[in-house]
Amino acid sequence: MIPYYLRASDDFSEDNSSAASPAQRPPSVPRKPKTKTLPSASSSGSSLGTVIASPTMPAKDDVVGQDSLKMQARHYKTLSNMYNKPNAKPNQSDVAQVLDLEFKARRAFIDADVTREEDRPAKIFEAYPCFRDVRNAMDELRRIVGGTNSSYIEEVKGRWADFCAKVQFYGVWKKALKPPFPLDVRGVEFMLALFNALPSLFPSPTSPPKKLGNSCEALLHVLKSGEDPTLYLEKRPLSSPVLLSDGSTIIVAVGNVPVTTLPQENFSDGMLVLMAYYYTLHLRYPKCVATLLSVIQTEVIGDTIHDQDATSSYKKAMADWKSFIEK
Questions:
Q1: How far is it, in rounded angstroms, from Cα 33 to Cα 46?
Q2: Which of 6, 173, 227, 254 could form a disulfide with 12 if both were Cys (CB 3.0 to 4.6 A apart)?
């Protein structure tokens, strides 16, 4: 499958035997981003004149649009060629450069919401296998929220470390965590305790699915001895990103699709990886942890939630949190 926006591009159809057939391309129309709206002409007090293009010459915007479409097609073809061999491992900086160039059309394709949410990750990974690499997913988070700020991810990691340092004492205050705490707040022991406690520290009014058990299972599942991660994912009732830990490796999965692995020593970045995939794949937060992830979105990711979009549970959670850290 290739993004629908390439359908009209003759440039992509030339010499592209490695691409999927046109029948597999999603027939979608990109929507405007939810968080960005343009004022209407009436609201600004201005009127719009009618412009009629010459019948013998296409409108300037149409020409620019077609040229842009062809450029996007070339960028996508370049990216596809990097991954058209089995076990391809292209240079990460080269991939990042092409992803920068193709960003606008890619986000229109991904954000179009033309497939069921549970089917979306598999289709996006098929079109963009580069996002199976955590580094590319994190970089996409930077593009979406941080724009051209090359230090954005380091800043996010700094805010996450600061959040973790404060939330352990907040957990004691809320009686969800018990001291003493490990000296290493980036260590596995502390992170396991933190993942278990976070949903109760920033609670959502919706209970988790019965098959899931606890809300923390929406974020992390610790595999039991001999437990098959593939079988677990097949039975998992959520299609959201999740971490699976077997004590030595962290499996990153989305829905029932294993995506990649992280070394156990990088467990502290696990929450950021989950958030990166929520943004990259344009996924909704599960209701049972929506309040928590909304807090992470604003406090760590640095992506503001406007008051009209904030739920009452999020507002209460933020009020309690701010009251504690500002004491």
A1: 24
A2: 6
What's at 3, amino acid-wise?
Answer: P
φ/ψ of 21, rounded to 5, equals -70, 155
Residue ranges of domains in the chain: 4-31+63-146, 158-325
Q: Which residues pair with 257 in a beta bridge?
A: 254
Q: What is the pLDDT of residue 89?
A: 87
Describe the strand order of the beta sheet including 220-222 as a list of residue ranges: 220-222, 241-245, 249-254, 257-263
Rg, C-alpha atoms of the chain = 22
The rounded distance, in Å, linking the Cα atoms of 94 and 129 is: 14
Q: 153-182: per-residue pLDDT in tens?
A: 999 999 999 999 999 999 989 888 877 776
Rounded alpha-carbon distances, angstroms, from residue 138 to 107, 142, 284: 15, 6, 18
Q: How far is CA 259 from CA 36, 126, 144, 222, in A?
A: 31, 12, 21, 17
